[in-house]
Amino acid sequence: MRIAQVAPLAESVPPKLYGGTERVVAWLVDELVGLGHEVTLFASGDSQTSAKLHAVWPRALRLGRPRTDPMVAQAALLEAVARHATEFDVIHAHIDWLHLPLLSRLGVPFLTTCHARMDLPGFPDVVRRFPDAPFVSISDNQRAPLSEANWIGTIYHGLPADLFSPSFEAGSYLAFLGRLTAEKGPEAAIRIARAAKMPLRIAAKVPRGERSYFKEQLEPQIDGEQSRSNSPARSMMKRNGSFWQARLRCCFLSIGPNRSASS
Cα separations (Å) of 135 from 30, 141, 263? Predict the structure, then answer.
């Protein structure tokens, strides 16, 4: 099949640091190529993929300099998809609702995987305007706030089978991966670590809009000893570095509402 994968422009595919959606898209694209499909990835120009890369913007927006208005880059993304839409048998979008007005009118089969929360204000109103637009959930629980959407299936996030190696030795600390927002549950991770009397290592980013939450709610609880915060874990550090050595007892992967199968 000729498949288009439309990725967010916030991070490269795969991401340099944080970026759960972009990491999942990278794995999906590589697997589709391995199965013999003709895949085109619409993403930022600093992405690396085994598919054909259609670079719609030079660099991913979050780390790119100088900063770019996201609306400008997203307009370029939609224009590129529209211009090439008829070249594909199916278009798979990972950009929430942004493409719905466009792809609903182009006559090309498409589907949408939403990788984030479905209970955000206004989202139900937008989705109701496109009752025939097909959606794929990443867990059955994710559908709950938007049961009226045209759900055609649940596909759990996969990952390469050889990405991690199990360790059966007793660990000595806990870890939290994600971004430091209330919906991800870092406070719960800190509370659990204290109750278990185990150190907690936090590898996460602080989004610009969440700095007050970090300063007021989290920073007072991160003492540098029982709870310690590091920069976002790099891909290779996640796989081979000290973060995943046998000392790790348990890893909290972004605890939060409606994210039971998300990264």
Answer: 22, 14, 19
